[in-house]
Amino acid sequence: MIKTVLQTSFNLRAFVRKVSFMTETSGPTKLTGAKQIAYCVCMQSNHWPHCDATHHTAGGSGPKIIELDENKTYMLCRCFKSKNKPFCDGSHLK
Description:
iron-sulfur, 2 helices, two-stranded antiparallel ribbon, CISD, mainly beta, 6 strands
């Protein structure tokens, strides 16, 4: 099953630029068309690995801003096992 990440006031700019977030029930999040992402490091986001500003109420640290090439597609880790966070390195398959 594939679902899209929900739009929030925090990530609205990404949706205005027509960034595509595709998440399967297991495995990485596929990201296309983004110049940068706010990568959640507090681990409290409802849209992890994307920051949704939950750190403001959860007492965590703010996001890590990752610069990307908007013409490329990226696979973002969701299993917390990647040695190349925020990018998937296939560790979820091991």
